[in-house]
Amino acid sequence: MSPELLLLDEPLANLDAHLRAAMIEEFRAAHARTGITTIYITHDQAEAMALATRVVVMAAGRIVQSAPPAILYREPANAMVGRFIGRGAILPARLLRIDSRGGGKIEALGRHARVRVAGGASIGAVELCLRPEDLSLTTRDDPRAIAARIHRRLYRGGFHELEISPLADTALRLRLDTRDDIAEGAQVGVRILDGWALPA
User: Fold this and answer.
1) Residues 23-29: contacts with CB within 8 Å, 24+ apart?
2) CA dihedral over 76, 77, 83, 84, signed as positive or negative
3) Which of 65, 90, 104, 146 lies in disulfide reach of 98, CB 3.0 to 4.6 Å?
4) Backbone phi, then psi, for 131, in 5-degree steps?
């Protein structure tokens, strides 16, 4: 068979983890070999990111963003996509300066950091999208540190996924990954290493 279009609707939904991984490789190889346009419908973000050349995020029946996986992850079009894709957290911030290279300086949770800035964002109030890799544990006496408490810790095999609450906004939940084994309830310092500033 040599179809012009292949539609796959949740093809891996009922498979165990090892078989899913093997089938993802089979789909990737088949696509590379044939070049057939494939529409792959899934609720599993890891599958979408692993297989797609372009991911479409929909909400209420409308396309919100269509982009290659890396762009969708690092540069979400709005706060909804930022929250939905990749364990993102959105928090209010102030954009203090924009430079000529597409970056800028923000103030968030009482600390300054350098981030990437979306087109359309302007000096003043913005929404800051933070991914787990945009954050790093540091000492509590680091002048750039945001004081936080570990709300939840999950062991993910080789690393711990931490859900932390800044002491300045205990309702906010940020996620970061670390190899450090730190108890739930412990107070830590957290630095913002990067982020994506969106128009508010």
Assistant:
1) 24/50, 24/51, 27/51
2) negative
3) 104
4) -100, 160
Residue 176 near residue 162, CB atoms below 8 Å:
yes
Q: Is the dihedral of CA 88, 92, 96, 98 positive or negative?
A: positive
Structure tokens, 29: 């190889």
Considering only CA atoms, give the Rg of the chain. Answer: 19
End-to-end C-alpha distance for the chain, whole angstroms: 50
Tokens of 115: 């981030």
> In this structure, what token pair is assigned to residue 110?
């009482």
* 8 Å CB contact between 93 and 105: no
pLDDT digits (tens, 9 = 90+) for 19-68: 998 999 998 898 888 888 989 898 888 888 988 999 999 999 999 999 99
Pairwise CA distance, residues 70 & 32, whole Å? 19
Compute the distance between CA of residue 39 and CA of residue 158 in angstroms, rounded to an integer: 34
In the three-class reduction of DSSP (H, G, I as helix; E, B as strand; rest coil), residue 39 is classed as strand
Helix (H, G, I), strand (E, B) or coil at 146: strand
**What SS3 state is found at 50?**
helix
Structure tokens at 75: 């540069």
Pairing state between β 124-130 and 196-199: antiparallel
